[in-house]
Amino acid sequence: QVQLVESGGGLVQAGGSLRLSCGASGLTFSIYSMGWFRQAPGKEREFVAAITRSSSGTYDADSVKGRFTISRDNAKNTVYLQMNSLRPEDTAVYYCAAGNRGWVLSTAECDYWGQGTQVTVSS
Hints:
Number of strands: 11
Largest sheet: 7 strands, mixed
Shape: globular
Oligomer: single chain
Order of helices and strands: EEEEEEEEEEE
């Protein structure tokens, strides 16, 4: 049974930082591309960042470029999202996802999802 479990969310003031983690089990983590998505109330789930199987490449949404960094540790079956300079518009439930493809840049490319972790940025 595949499980993706996010942690690290919380309440932070604008300009602050958070580091999200997503631990994976039940799959061969190193062959999956990983991604982070987010969903704010009343909005569709949107892409945030993605990383290839071997960390050879990363890709960020324009809205988070220069502020968020995705990384992974295949030895620990974990993917991370370091979020700096947080803004109120970053408030959302953040989900990690795994896909057996080169990239996971859209929800359609994701095979597995975590349950999400809430990030709230106050102004």
